[in-house]
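Lay summary. Proteins are chains of building blocks that fold into shapes, and those shapes determine what they do. In this project we predict the shape from the chain. Here is one chain we studied, written as its sequence of building blocks.
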Amino acid sequence: VMRDLVDSSLEVVWISDRHPSDVNYCICVNRMASRVIVVFRGDEGVLRRVKDSTMMDHENPLSEELGNTEFIQLRAAVSKDILTPRLDTKISIVEEIHDRVNKIRIELTGRDPCHVTICGHNLGGGLATVTG
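And here is the predicted shape, written in a compact code that computers can read:
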């Protein structure tokens, strides 16, 4: 895996691993191609799926657009972990990732856009969907 990583010109620039029960993700960069990749770990056991299968209401960021509701429902396993502000930084993990990706983009391209890929598997796929 490490050989593939080196051969692909990807550089790991951030790994989030503050606590074992925290959302785990990493940010990789391909500087030559001006690409940023956010990858979420998809570890989700059967007990967590059952426990967190309930839905939670969240403000809809697109509620101002015609026909949209004020709130949207997201699965609790995804939304509570990634949208709730952290006690230490007072910002959510989504905001943290957006801030980090924006800083990396400015370092890579100045103010020009760059290609960003956000991905994950299982629970990580849900986290990637909400983050994107």
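What the prediction tells us: The chain has a mean pLDDT of 81.
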